[in-house]
Design brief:
Structural class: alpha+beta
Strand content: 15-25%
Distance between the termini: 13 Å
Helix content: 10-25%
Strand order of the largest sheet: 1-4
Order of helices and strands: EHEEHE
Radius of gyration: 11 Å
Number of helices: 2
Number of strands: 4
CATH architecture: 2-Layer Sandwich
Length: 68
């Protein structure tokens, strides 16, 4: 996995979904403790660019090192 997500911090704002260059971020079906649908990432197609990390106002993302 290139990106870790703290699903309990997600407030479903949509900034990461709108700004992902590969459009690999979507919403979970379940609801977190704050009654939001947290995001999920298609790990197979994620390039680990960090746009989700940069755009998230709630510190949901942690970008890990690449597979090189």
């Amino acid at each position: 996995m290139k990106v870790q997500i703290d699903k309990e911090r997600c407030k479903e704002c949509g900034l990461c979904v709108a700004n992902c260059p590969k459009q690999v971020i979507s919403y979970e079906e379940y609801v977190n403790h704050a009654s939001y649908h947290p995001v999920k990432i298609d790990d197979e197609n994620c390039i680990g660019c960090g746009f989700c990390y940069i755009t998230c106002p709630d510190g949901v993302y942690h970008v890990l090192g690449g597979d090189k």
